[in-house]
Amino acid sequence: MVSTRFKEIVPSPTVSLNNKFSELKEKGENAISFGVGEPDATTPEDVIEFAARKAKEGKTHYTSSMGIKELRVRIAEKYSRMTNKDIAQDDVIITPAKFALNMAVQAVIEPGERVLIQDPSFVSYTEIIKIAGGVPVYFPSREDGSPDIEAVKELIDHRTRMIMINSPSNPHGWVASKEDMRAITDVALDKDLYVASDEIYEMIIYEGTHISPLSYPGMEERTFVINGFSKSHAMTGWRLGYLISPPGFTHYIDAFQQQTITCAPSISQYAALRAMDNTEFPEKMRLTFKRRRDLLYSILSKSSGLEIKKPAGTFYSFPRLRNGMSGEEFSVKLLEEKRVLVTPGSGFGPSGVDRVRISFALSEDNLEEGARRIVEFLG
Ligand code: PLP
Q1: Residue 13: is its pLDDT beyond 80?
Q2: What is the model's pLDDT at position 105?
Q3: Residue 289 C-alpha to ligand 1 middle, in angstroms?
Q4: Ligand 1 atom nearest to CA at 166
Q5: What share of the chain in percent tops pLDDT 90?
Q6: Which residues' Cβ are closer than 6 Å to ligand 1?
Q7: Which of 39, 314, 323, 377 is the most buried (most CB within 10 A)?
Q8: Going from the N-terminus, what domains does the chain have, and what CATH number goes with each?
């Protein structure tokens, strides 16, 4: 019998539509996917070559459970520069980003305690919190995508331990301003909460600049930073990211890592070390995404059936449907009738019910054709 704990984990909400899309592709149909959650580029050549060289040199064994020292030092230096604080390499552990999220939550949550997450937010947050025995609680966003701080304050009670923030945000594309982040950190300091800051889209920003809550006074005692190389360097398959924890946590987090995944993949760690030197690739990709964002907007904004804004970051747009359909209904029909896949917004939180997520991590030709079909479908 499958355990109750396992039965309660909700699988990815997009599976059935993705399967349908794959069937259409297998039949040779000209189907276009706006569902992709990863850059369409291949990992930069220099990163692949460096990792391959390291593999040939025999770096194919377990590494230290915390990760290779060179990489941890580089990450500590990066965050020390970014935050103007002295971030210790001992507080950095190398691990896949999604595992970093899991460890950050499990490190602080007692059974039944609450973690505040933004509505809308990344589909995995609710399940990660539930796996940790916690209770996810959505807080609303304002129209511009920023957290509704007054509502956040009202939701906090004695069971609330953590607030999760994702700037730039998947799926909304919101990028926190200094004031937004100050408001969030003020609440965390005032109400004695931990902040888990998922900064995985840090390098994909078109308007604004990246700011980590870790930069704010006093936040070094209560911030977990989750980051990685998946989105910045098109490295999703390498499964490589990192977690920076407040002092006093890493010893326990390291023990958890030792008893679960042992260490992050050795070759991927060397790939990441090289990626840290490659700043050209993320910048080139950012400019490509910016062009596609503008192209998508220029086509979709012509339709009165959608309310669409240009996202300030990430490669996602999160328009609201104006034709009375739910995101779910729209996505099913759009795939059936126009062979175009988008992601229903409901999986990202209650506010996503009448929205869909449209990823622009696809070629410009496909993007143009797919967007044209969406406009046609909306009539
Ligand atoms: N956080 C957010 C907001 C994401 O969108 C994703 C992946 O889509 C992740 C974390 C997980 O990243 P990784 O695949 O590197 O574990």
Answers
A1: no
A2: 98
A3: 18
A4: 3
A5: 96
A6: 37, 96-98, 122, 166, 170, 198, 200, 228, 230, 236, 241
A7: 314
A8: 4-43+280-378 (3.90.1150.10), 45-275 (3.40.640.10)
